[in-house]
Amino acid sequence: MSHNLCPRPELSKEDWDPDVVTRMIILAPGARVSESEIVSEMHMLDLPLTIKNTCYGAMVSGKEKDVKKALEEIRKLDPNHIFTKDRGFAPGDPRRCRGQRFGPREGFHQMEKEFRLLGDVADALEKRKDVKVSKKHPVDIDLVKNIMNES
Amino acid sequence: MVEIAIYPPNSLILADLIERKGHTPLALQKQIRQKVKDPEIDSPPMNITEDDPIKGLKYAAIEVPSGVRGRMSIIGPLIDAAEAAIIVDGAPFGFGCVGCARTNELSTFLLRDKDIPTLEVTYPTNKDETYQMVNEINDFLDSLDELVKSDEDFKDEAPVSEKEDLEFVEKELEED
Asked: What is the largest distance, in Å, between two alpha-carbon atoms of chain A?
């Protein structure tokens, strides 16, 4: 597996460009758009972007201003269920891409964990609901003593 | 627009909520991108340079393991640039982790110690707690512009010099 620990990246010139940013678009459960709809919508924008369809949504890479513009347009489709996040590595980078690794990529487990919360976060964003959460406190020692003395 | 440090530093939910309100999240990924695209590193980010633990000395002592100092060389500049902070307490490892408990402790300590507006929320375990967390974060973000502005106003006030202070005491004594 040693070859997998330090793979030599053969990336394109664009991927080495420090001005190029990569963003992940993640759909929350209950989203009113699908992954393919997002990707086709981004293609329709006709911006110089690299777009990748993924199981959780999409990945988009390009110059920062183009990516920002694309995200603004995409968010309009379903503002409360579309979440975005920066990504350090370019799409398909062999050091992160699952296709060249023996197992899930780093970051997958975090996304899995956060994905479980995303549905509730999307609901909270859709309609604000003020709730009071009561904190659990330990049982008062006097109460325990009283119960013991009674029995 | 305020630059906000988040902890865990690579959290999707925190970064997204901040961007929705027009602020800038200081996410770890941007720092990692700089490292990944640095042609001087052989196979980034597996190899850190020998400079990294040295840069980390700004945040942790020499006795601290090099792993903590190496991590702090990436997270530290984010903490330095922070104008506000949101910290999630009790988050499980999956909810963004830098892979080192001591780095987590040091980073949250530095953020708490920095004298900036800080919001600490507890990691939610059910729907109601998630509602509460999102509401708290949104309220904090809405009030942030005023909070940061009032902090800056306070800092802009010229500090009283020791000389002026001494003159004031002498004057008071003479009057007595």
From this structure: 80
